[in-house]
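Usage

Read records sequentially. Each one opens with the input sequence:
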Amino acid sequence: MTHATISVISFGGGFNLPLWAAQACGYFERHGVTMELHFTADSRQVFRGLADGTYHVALTALDNIVAHQERQTAAVSEGAPDFFAFMGSDEGFLSLVSAPDIRSFADLAGRALSVDDPSNGFSMVLREMLAMNGLAPDDVEWQSAGATDRRYAALVAGQHAATMLRTPFDLLALQAGCHRLGKVRELIGPYMGIVGAARRAWAASNGEALVGFVRAYRDAVGWLHAPANREAAETLLRAGVPSMSAELGRLSCDALLNPEDGFYGDVRLDPKGVEAVLRLRSRYADTPRPLNDASRYVDLQYWSAA
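and closes with the structure output:
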């Protein structure tokens, strides 16, 4: 087996638990991969780094890939984009969380909402949640505030009225007196949130390494879901997020490892979730058009080989 180094970029937070578990349990090594993990400030850094080869794999929102492939984002990379998703991690663990003085969607009218980038990522989900509750995009002010950890910090500092947060940042915000206005799964249903992404050209030349990455990630998720490993999983999570209390670690693992909507056990891209991503982008992109061909953004050959 050829041993390969894969440079991975992700957003900071406890949702990186499968990566930490794969390292701690030796799954990357077992499958011929050395994983180097980097954290990003925003999605622009992710796709610039993938495009120039600084990073080989990203854990990012599927919508980000679609936005770049369709050139519907302000951060379009140079040349023809060839980004694609090769595996699914989770639905995103997404909630819309508001400041202490905001208790309903109606309270958001005229207020500032923060997103990573208004043109991509989870902003399409937020637009749908607003529409379902009688608010148009122009009824609120949109502000770019970077990755989840940065948006959480800005929210609790009183800089924005609401933002989309992923577990455990939603739980941290609730502890700080914020309110959960809604969960994406409850309001929208299945949604393909976080995926493994790469460039098609890189994957074609590094297929064995990419298959090894998928196997290691899948093995790690399996280990995390095993009840006998729950205590070790919580310890690993708190090691990755040193400020996390034991109680928050328990609550976070309850969400991340929930059999219904936690990390995908088979790390397969969920077809219904992919369909939801394309449906929302078709509706809410700045230059909307029907997006129906998932093969432009998804390739299951590496997942199938794993």
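Summary fields computed downstream for this record:
- The chain has two domains: 4-92+192-305, 94-187.
- The longest strand covers residues 4-11.
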